[in-house]
Amino acid sequence: MLRPPRILIYVNAVARHGSIRKAAESLHMASSALNRRILDLENELGTTLFERLARGVRLTTAGEVYMNYVRRALTDLELVSSQIEHLRGLVRGRVRIAATESVAGRLLPAAIAKFQLKHPGVYFNVVIEAAGRLLDALAADTADLILTHDLYNRSDVSILAVATQPFCAVVSQDHPLASHATLRLRDCLAYPIALADESLAGRGLIDRALLKASFQFEPALVSNSIETMKAYARLSQAVCFQFRVGTAFDADMVSIPLTDPGLAKTELFLAMRRGRSLPGAAAAFSEHMSAIFDEMA
User: Fold this and answer.
1) Domains of the chain
2) How many whole angstroms separate alpha carbon 71 and alpha carbon 222?
3) What is the sign of the dihedral through the CA atoms of 35, 36, 37 and 38?
4) 36, 73, 195, 282 — which has fewest CB within 10 A?
5) Euclidean distance between the first and final Cα of the chain, in Å?
6) How far does Cα 66 stand from its chain's mean position?
7) Which DSSP string corresponds to 169-200?
8) What is the C-alpha to C-alpha distance for residues 54 and 41, in angstroms, rounded to an integer?
């Protein structure tokens, strides 16, 4: 793989860590040497890129402009390297994915493992984020691909694949509701409720549905962890809520589709930033994921 100019790596590290000392540690170099390289660059440009603070540094306005160039340059270099590898008949490189938590338990890890059996030269960086931050990652080119349930009608996003994913009430196998084919939110009122916090996509769906309802939930548990909510539901006859993809491999749990307006037809999206050319490894993985989405339809 082509190596980027060291100064771009230095500036990127300082901006990412917000500290010359921490950036130097990550780069395995002396902080004084790194600071000197940054000062030399600032002298060459005739402007300050980083404001020195008592507890670190932050980008100046000029620094933000330069960082946009750094991100584009690093992304373009990775793309060129990937295209050259592709011409050699190889799929190598790094795929950066930002994803919603519902796919973290099984779908995404299984897809990556299967892909790497065929392409062992590809490695992955995966972060799990709230829906809004997934879109921010695309816009900043810190993610090649995202998996999300909510795109907020963004015009700067290209949808590569979409699969219907029912939003469900999730209960233990011995729960009184477990035999139902479908449910409405009202049916769950008689039982303890475990709700996601505002960082998870499912919470927004429920909140919007409850705005049109004549009742409200008083949750016994609120969490940003799907696994915590499912474990609580197993142990307390509670009801939690999740997209079916997040519970598909929980043999001891039952997922029952909700039919309330706004909950009956929910989807999972694979997306990228509009107008961007994906590196070869990311493009190959997007095709792999699209095939998996087709199987889910």
Assistant:
1) 1-71 (1.10.10.10), 91-163+266-297 (3.40.190.10), 167-257 (3.40.190.290)
2) 37
3) positive
4) 36
5) 37
6) 26
7) EEEETTSTTTT-S-B-GGGGTTS-BEEE-TTS
8) 22
What is the value of pTM for the model shown?
A: 0.70
Q: What type of residue is 114?
A: K
In terms of Cβ atoms closer than 10 Å to its own Cβ (0-12, 13-18, 19+), residue 290 is middle
For the chain, state the CA radius of gyration: 23
pLDDT per residue over 151-206, tens digit each?
A: 877 888 999 999 988 899 999 999 999 999 999 999 999 999 999 998 888 898 99
| Structure tokens given for 258 | 């909700």
Average pLDDT, the chain: 90
Note the pLDDT tens digit of each residue in 56-113. Answer: 999 999 999 999 999 888 888 877 776 776 655 556 788 999 999 889 888 999 999 9
- Phi, psi dihedrals of residue 64, rounded to the nearest 5°: -60, -45
Residue 2's pLDDT band (cuts 50, 70, 90): low
Buried/exposed 118-154: b ≥16 CB within 10 Å, e otherwise: ebeebebebebbbbeebbebbeebebbbbbbbbbeee
